[in-house]
């Protein structure tokens, strides 16, 4: 009587653990392929566009990007 319940609980726990590790692996691969933009990358992009990046301008752009991503 209690064996099917025990099997169900064990299967549920195994599914949660397996799902966690698969999601973790997926996110690690995603962040490796698409790293978040940092100040160094922003500075390089601005220089490639022909702009002379000042620290104030970079800080403004980082704040705007952080504000946009938090929405």
Order of helices and strands: HHH
Number of strands: 0
**Distance between the amino and carboxyl termini:** 50 Å
- Label the structural class: mainly alpha
Beta-strand portion reads under 5%
* Average pLDDT metric: 90
How many distinct folded domains?
Answer: 2
Shape field: rod-shaped
Radius of gyration: 22 Å
Poorly predicted runs of 5 or more residues = none
Number of helices, counting only DSSP H or I runs of 4 residues or more: 3
The helical percent reads: over 70%
| Largest β sheet strand count, sense and barrel closure | none
Notes on the structure:
The chain folds into 2 domains: 1-35; 37-66, no CATH class. It has helices at residues 3-33, 39-48, 55-70. The model has no long low-confidence stretch (mean pLDDT 90). 80% of the residues lie in helices and 0% in strands. The protein has 3 helices and no strands.
């Amino acid at each position: 009587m209690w064996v099917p319940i025990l099997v169900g609980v064990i299967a549920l726990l195994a599914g949660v653990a397996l799902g966690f590790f698969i999601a973790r692996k997926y996110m690690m691969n995603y962040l490796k392929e698409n790293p978040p933009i940092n100040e160094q990358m922003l500075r390089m992009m601005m220089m490639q566009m022909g702009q002379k990046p000042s620290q104030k301008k970079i800080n403004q752009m980082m704040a705007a990007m952080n504000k946009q991503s938090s929405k």
